[in-house]
Amino acid sequence: MKVAIIHYWLVGMRGGEKVLEGLCRLFPSADIYTHVYNPDVISDVIKRHKIRTTFIQKLPRALHWYNSYLPLMPLALEQIDLRNYDLVISSESGPAKGVITEPEALHVCYCHSPMRYLWDQYFRYLEDRPIYTRAVMRLVFHYLRLYDCASSHRVEKYIANSRYVASRIQQYWRRDAEVIYPPVDINRFTVTPENDGYYLWLGKVVRYKKPDLAVEAFNKNGRNLVVLGDGEQLGVVKRMAKKNITFPGAVDDAAVTRYLEHCKALVFSGIEDFGIVPVEAMACGKPVIAFGRGGVTESVIEDSTGIFFHESTPDSLNQAIKRFESMERHFNPTEIRCQAERFSEALFMDRMWNVITEAWHSKFGANLPIANGLKSASADRKVV
Predict the structure, then answer these.
(1) Residues whose CB falls within 8 Å of the CB of residue 376, separated by 6 or more in sequence, listed in order
(2) Spatial separation of the C-alpha atoms in residues 54 and 310, rounded to whole Å
(3) Largest CA distance in the chain
(4) Do the first three CATH levels of 3-183+344-379 and 186-342 match, i.e. the same topology?
(5) Contact of 284 with 262, CB cutoff 8 Å
(6) Where would I find the H helices in 28-181?
C-alpha cells in the first residue's frame, strides 16, 4: 500500500505539524506533498519522509510570501499526480484537500479548521488589511469559497480535531466528521506543584488569539504575567503593557516546558479550534483560565482543571482570575495531569488507525492492505 500525506505548508512546527508528526509515525513510508517547505524549521520526524513541493515553492520569496500565493494553490494542488497511491490523507487548514485522487484510492481529510480567512474570520481579516487591498480580497475570496465548497466533495471521510471544528465542517461544507483530538506529547512535561507566582500567556502573538485582552486585564490587576511567543502583534502589546508584564519572546521547547511547569496558571484568551497549549499546561498539573468558547471547552473541565470566563473583556477575565485564586487550593495537579493524558499521541494514533481501516472497509469491503513497517507499528500501540 502506498500512502500520500498532503499538508498545506511546512514553514514551522505548530499544532498542524504536530499532527503531521503523528501521521508520519503511523505511516512511516508515506510521501508528503506540500506547497512550500523550509527544512530548517521542521522536525526530524517529518524530514525522514520524502517531501515534494508544488510549483508555489519556486515563486519569488515563497517561504515568506506563501499566503500571498493563496489564489494559485487550488491550481497547484490539482497538479499533484497521485495515481500510484492507495491512501491519501489531506491535512487541512490551508488548501490541502483539493487534490485529485483515483477512484481506487481512499481520501481521508484530517481537518484542523476550515480556512478561517474564508469563513468565520473573514471580516476580521479584511479589517487587518490596507483599504486598497480589500476590494481585491473580496473578489478573490469569493471564488476561493466556491472552490473550497466544491473541493470538499473530493474527500470520502472527514476527521475533525474537535467537536467545534466538526460543527463548522457541517456548516460550511455540509459534511459529517468524526472527532479525533490532536496528539500532545504528554511525556515531555512533569507535574510541578510549586510555582513562581506568575501567570503565563503562551502562543503566536496574533490578533485572533487576543493577547491584547490578557495584557489589558493584567494592566488592571497588577499581577505578574509572562507573554511567551512572537508574532505580528508583539510590538502592539509590548507598547501597551505595564512593568508587571514581561515578554521573553520566542524560546526553544525546553524553555517553553520550564515556563509551563513553573507558572501559577495558563491564561488562554482567544478562540481556538482545539488548543494544544492548554493540554500542555494541564500535563504540568497547571490549571487553565480560558475564554469559554471553541475547542478548549472540550479539553478543560470547569472547576476541576480550570476556570472559564464568558465575555471577551478584561473585566470578565479578571473576575475569573479572582475566582481561581479564591479556590486555587482545590485544584489537584495529579487530577489535572490525568485529564491531559486523554490527549496522548498513543490514543491519537490508535483512533486514527481504527477510523482509516473502517473507512477503507466501508469503501472496498476488504481489510486495509498493510505496508512494510506499518503492521508492526500499529501492533505495538497501546490504548490509553
Answers:
(1) none
(2) 43
(3) 64
(4) yes
(5) no
(6) 44-47, 62-65, 73-77, 122-127, 131-151, 163-173
> Which three three-digit cell numbers place residue 69?
500565493
Closest CA to 270 of 211, 313, 326: 211
- Digit-coded pLDDT (tens) for 52-106: 999 999 999 999 999 999 999 999 999 999 999 999 999 999 899 999 999 999 9
Whether the CB-CB separation of 156 and 364 falls below 8 Å is answered with no
Which CATH class name applies to 186-342?
alpha beta
Q: Which grid coordinates belong to 367?
A: 481489510
From 344, 325, 356, select the one nearest 383 (Cα to Cα).
344
**CA dist., res. 66 & res. 45, Å (int):** 23
Length of the chain: 384
pLDDT in tens, 250-261: 899 999 999 999
- Evaluate whether 323 touches 374 at the Cβ level (below 8 Å): no
Separation between Cα atoms, residue 189 and residue 260, nearest integer Å: 9
Q: 3-183+344-379 domain in CATH 3.30.465.10?
A: no
For the stretch 326-346, pLDDT in tens is 999 999 999 999 999 999 999
| Domains in the chain: boundaries | 3-183+344-379, 186-342
Tell me the C-alpha distance between 60 and 354, whole Å.
42
**pLDDT tens figures, 138-151:** 999 999 999 999 99
pTM: 0.89
